[in-house]
Amino acid sequence: MEPRFNLLTNELGAKIAKRIYNVALAIQQSSLPQSTQDLVMLRASQINGCGFCVDYHTKDATAAGESAVRLHLVAAWRESTVFTEAERAALALTEEGTRLADAHHGVSDETWDQVRKHYDDDQIVALVSVIAMINANNRLNVIVRNPGGSYEPGMFNNMAN
């Protein structure tokens, strides 16, 4: 599969990518656990069928020490015993926040209550933001058909500022 378009070689595309990367850095520096961020990004990317992002977030999570078992089971987290209650709340919010068009009520009160139970206000800001940003990234990559398989951890580290 060949990409339709390389956003990073276009001046405007590169400028936008840099802004998106800086938002991601702010989220990454929050108190929301990095493992939760990784699981959320992976799950949204799976739902959206973004091969590039599944590749990216699986490899980054692995490099950060995430277990293969948890990564393999994230798609079936409801039927798995390897996630904490807080992670399960984050994954439920991810699914409901990613599938907005499929759920006429959006995010349920039950899911929101679970998120409030496990995360403080700053962590909720980070969680909602990481869900929104990964969905935007998924859409960018799916639209231009950016394929998975070539990502190397840290390859975008020079994008900051």
Automatic annotation (TrEMBL):
<feature type="domain" description="Carboxymuconolactone decarboxylase-like">
    <location>
        <begin position="23"/>
        <end position="96"/>
    </location>
</feature>
<protein>
    <submittedName>
        <fullName>Carboxymuconolactone decarboxylase family protein</fullName>
    </submittedName>
</protein>
<dbReference type="InterPro" id="IPR004675">
    <property type="entry name" value="AhpD_core"/>
</dbReference>
<dbReference type="Pfam" id="PF02627">
    <property type="entry name" value="CMD"/>
</dbReference>
<dbReference type="InterPro" id="IPR029032">
    <property type="entry name" value="AhpD-like"/>
</dbReference>
<dbReference type="GO" id="GO:0051920">
    <property type="term" value="F:peroxiredoxin activity"/>
</dbReference>
<dbReference type="InterPro" id="IPR003779">
    <property type="entry name" value="CMD-like"/>
</dbReference>
